[in-house]
Amino acid sequence: MDLKTKIREINDFPEKGIIFRDITTLLKDADALRDAISQMEEKTKGLEYDIIIGPESRGFIFGMPIAYNQNKGFVPVRKKGKLPAEVVRKEYSLEYGTAVIEMHADALKKGQKVLIVDDLLATGGTTKAIIELVEEMGAEVSGLIFLIELEELKGREALNGYYAESIIRY
Question: CA 48, CA 26: separation in Å to the nearest integer?
Fold first, then answer.
């Protein structure tokens, strides 16, 4: 299935000149959703990993079914202040300011191999912050799987040295 045809494009959102790739149209189409998850899961073949990490919220949407299908655990990465137990955090730069991501301090064990799953690779900033957090916890990133990659933003360059795959490229 050509999943690109299932994604709605919204011009000038969130600001003028931006084309927003809206995946809600893909998510509501049962066949497209199943195919997207299957294609993403196919990209994990040959990777050795113990657990899947997904950033909120769309990383949850795609990471959870892959974790379920592969009989792996799932670790959510959340925005600051959303997790109830002790956390580790990483602050990172955005185009206009900074953001903070958090993960429970006991989410990963030293030496665990991690697969990061998300819906979008844009500039790579959020993913790079997750990688740094994972490695600071003593775990290892085995790979990165994305539904969409916005190639003109060169996010892949921020992820040099890591196995990274995307299903749809713009």
Answer: 29
Q: Tell me yes or no: is domain 47-169 CATH 3.20.20.20.
A: no
For residue 70, count other CB atoms closer than 10 A to its CB: 15
Catalytic residue among 15, 86, 95, 152: 95
Which is catalytic among the residues 41, 56, 58, 165? Answer: 58
Q: Which of 136, 130, 139 is nearest to 49 (CA)?
A: 139
Sorted by where each begins, the domain ranges of the chain are: 47-169
CA distance 87 to 148: 29
Which two three-digit tokens encode residue 23?
Answer: 């995946």
Exposed/middle/buried for 117, CB within 10 Å: 0-12, 13-18, 19+? buried
pLDDT digits (tens, 9 = 90+) for 117-134: 999 999 999 999 999 999
The verdict on whether 58 is a catalytic residue reads yes
- Give catalytic status of residue 89 as yes or no: no
What's the pTM? 0.95
Report the first-to-last Cα separation within the chain, whole angstroms: 17
